[in-house]
Amino acid sequence: MKPGVLSKTPAARPVPSMPRLSPSGWIVLALLPVLAAAPLLLPTYQVTLANNIGIFALATLGLVLLTGVAGMTSFGQAAFIGVSAYATAYLASVSAADLPASLAWMAGSPLAGLAVGLVLTLAIATVLGAVTLRLSGHYLPLGTIAWGLSLFYLFGNLEFLGGHTGLSGIPALSLFGIAFDKAETLFYLIWAVLLLAVVATLNLLDSRVGRAIRALRGGQRMSESMGVNSFQAKMTAFLVAALYAGLAGWLYAYTQRFVSPAPFSLQAGIDFLFMALIGGVGQVWGAVIGAAGVTFAKQWLQDLLPHLLGRTGNFEAIVFGLLIVLLMQRLPGGIAGWIAKTFERRRHRPAVLESMDLPDAEPLPRRPMPEKGEVVLEARGVTRRFGGLVANHDISFAVRAGEILAVIGPNGAGKSTLFNQLSCVDHPTSGEILFRGERVDGRTARAMASAGLSRSFQHVKLLPTMSVLENVAIGAHLRGSKGVAAAALRLDRAEEARLLAEARRQLVRVGLGQYLHAEAGSLALGQQRILEIARALCADPCLLLLDEPAAGLRFLEKQALAELLVKLRSEGMAILLVEHDMDFVMGLVDRVYVMEFGERIAEGPPATIQTNPAVLEAYLGGVE
Ligand SMILES: Nc1ncnc2c1ncn2[C@@H]1O[C@H](COP(=O)(O)OP(=O)(O)OP(=O)(O)O)[C@@H](O)[C@H]1O
């Protein structure tokens, strides 16, 4: 038995009283003096280059969140920048007389330009997101290509935006009496905005909302079952990415003091994706590294190649393309991904958790539990057909608080199909499902999680690169309420401490207390199953659905799991499990429901079931 799995674990390790600075905190601290000195020491053309890098990095940061973390590819980032840049340029250069009287105050106002630019960008992103984010597969990338193309041509064809010539005559930026009229002063503004965005993104990812966004990539079905609204999480990532593009557009307009359609073309959208890929698409700092790397590499190749080849041409694009292919093959996680991996290997701990202290926070409030003996879940005549196949036929049973009911049956009997319907992942063709007396068939898995049903999966579903603690904290998603702004501004710490303390409590309870900071994917399969139970418990359920919880567990681990389930039962939990391990089932549960070919063949206490001739014939007869 692996140490600690469902064994009596020591209490969680002592909690440091002062939060330690995270690696990103150290990076920001180290960058501050460098950034403060850069404009004073560098020649103006290099400061201008650094300004471009800052703006590109801001736009790329959005893509890191959207594409790298949330797994949604967008080619439209440059177009979002364009919307904001054009709104800024238009309002900065228009005369008050050309605007309606009520809007005349906006003419020449940089803050009005910023507000209008951001509102327009977010409004377009909301519409585009509403249309494409519910669709899976290639619809989002294709939608962003279509939108990027149409906007590019729109910019070029609108006369009041200067057509293909663009808008010039943007005055120098002046904010609150400070003139940002030189590359050197703009540098401070651009890099301050970028650093704030980086810190806000790091904060966001290290939060309840951040876990929901991180679960989008490969864990959607699981997180929905834990109450996460995946569409909302996608929309959040999409809008934050658009917000960063909007900010980048505003800064771009005042840096260039001229806008035209070319920098917002589809090609530019692809370039931002390259920056994210090269920097490290899943890493926040990858945006800065990627923007700097691509900008310098292009500049360097543009200077070097004509010398080497003795002629001019777009050779840098060809060499650059080859370099990207090579880099993707050698470093699929990008430069920042490679650095993070090397760093983590040395520290033997995931970077994201370095700063996390786990104070003994006040326990989260608990839902009112049903009285022992109260029917928690009831299936009435549930039938599920797949075309001509009847996977469940007229299934009826009830599970009560303080009871463990096992559903058993040979492979293909219809147990998983039934589980999916009970948890509203799938819906019955006919029949009714009631949860605590209310009809729930047709509801979403999310609604069931909110009602108090929590589950584990036949094939373990966890986020392998996320820590054990954070995986389990996803189970507590509905027990928190702090949103994006609170997370970005770190106003969610008290709630986050309570969520993490609850996750730790459940992990200690199931015997995984010393694996809090390990990557979930590094646990043995049996431990991963136990992690799923801790995650389900973190939701404070009144009904646990466990799909083959003992599969992959060793003898002592099974014994410890049985002890835990008995304890939960004594606390009034209703437990429904599907299991193939007959020794485990018969020694543990109160009642057994036996299925074959989608139908009930027997139901009763284990002792009766073990001697039931129909069961022996259909199922137990084949089992020693
Ligand atoms: N989405 C689906 N479309 C078509 N047929 C399906 C679908 N899901 C399940 N089935 C069929 O329904 C029947 C019951 O399958 P189910 O997975 O529920 O059985 P099970 O008892 O859970 O089996 P196991 O113990 O092997 O997991 C099988 O014949 C299966 O092929």
Automatic annotation (TrEMBL):
Keywords: ATP-binding, Cell membrane, Membrane, Nucleotide-binding, Transmembrane, Transmembrane helix, Transport
Family annotation (CDD domains): ABC_Mj1267_LivG_branched, TM_PBP1_LivM_like
GO molecular function: ATP binding; ATP hydrolysis activity; branched-chain amino acid transmembrane transporter activity
GO cellular component, one term: plasma membrane
Subcellular location: Cell membrane
Keyword Zinc on entry: no
Domain ABC transporter: 377-622
Topology of this chain in the membrane: Multi-pass membrane protein
Keyword presence, Membrane: yes
PROSITE patterns (UniProt xref): ABC_TRANSPORTER_2
Transmembrane regions listed in the UniProt entry: 24-42, 49-72, 78-99, 111-133, 186-205, 226-252, 272-296, 317-340
Pfam families listed in its UniProt record: ABC_tran, BCA_ABC_TP_C, BPD_transp_2
Predominant location: membrane
Protein known as: Branched-chain amino acid ABC transporter ATP-binding protein/permease
